[in-house]
From TrEMBL:
Protein name: Stress-response A/B barrel domain-containing protein HS1
GO BP terms: pollen tube adhesion
SMART domains: Dabb
Cited PROSITE patterns: S_R_A_B_BARREL (PS51502)
Domain Stress-response A/B barrel, first and last residues per copy: 8-102
Quaternary organization: Homodimer.
Transmembrane regions listed in the UniProt entry: none
Species of provenance: Arachis duranensis
Domain of life: Eukaryota
Lineage: Eukaryota, Viridiplantae, Streptophyta, Embryophyta, Tracheophyta
Gene assigned in the entry: LOC107462560
């Protein structure tokens, strides 16, 4: 197995509150994506909605993935004023959330 050198994935798995409209969700996602242009340590952003047929999502509906070059980059992102401002808008709209940071590992078989 080979751990990616430095690269860190920041994963947010979320369920929006029932009273948050699709338009509000779209605006929040656009704001999240915009952080890439505001936070130097944030290198990439992707998101998607649950499409699993396994029905094991436990109510979570959205996944957000940000890429950083290091754990220090994630720490810079978390403390960055643009992220703090965005988090203050985003988090109150969530019914539940899980956040996980990991270093991708490639398995060579």
């Amino acid at each position: 197995m080979e751990e990616a050198k430095g690269v860190v994935k920041h994963i947010v798995v979320a369920k929006f509150k029932d009273d948050i409209s699709p338009q509000q969700i779209e605006e929040l996602i656009n704001g999240y994506a915009n952080l890439v242009s505001l936070v130097p340590s944030m290198k990439a952003f992707q998101w998607g909605k649950d499409v699993s047929a396994e029905n094991m999502h436990q109510g979570f509906t959205h996944v957000f993935e940000s890429t950083f070059e290091s754990t220090e980059g994630v720490a810079e992102y978390v403390a960055h004023p643009a992220h703090v401002e965005y988090a203050n808008l985003f988090l109150p709209c969530l019914d539940k959330v899980i956040v996980i940071d990991y270093k991708p590992t490639t398995l060579h078989v």
